[in-house]
Amino acid sequence: MNCCWSTITTEKLDESVNFYTEILGLSVARRFSPFPGTKIAFLKDGNGFKIELLQNSGPAGAPKEGISLGFEVKSLADTLALVQSKQIPAFGGPTKVPGCSFFFVKDPNGVSIQFVENDHTAPETH
Question: Which pTM does this prediction carry?
Fold first, then answer.
């Protein structure tokens, strides 16, 4: 079984698309409206991972707690500078643990996004 995508319900579709394309470097795979009052955008990375952004005519609900999406980056310092330049507050770091360093931001919908720089020189532990 393969995970095909994660869905985030939003009231801010365009703002969310901008966040995921400008900050995370995802590209828009497709955008459509299956019926009146509903808009969908699928975003993808270079490895086939997708995020579905879903905007309905109703409210998106409370901010998403207890959910985070993790994205590996080449340079945590460069990514932190990027989010700070966009006035996106970082939290939970930068933190260094064995094998990686990371920090979090919130997307426009309240979903936690974790940026991770893996230390590829550290030995793996299982």
Answer: 0.81
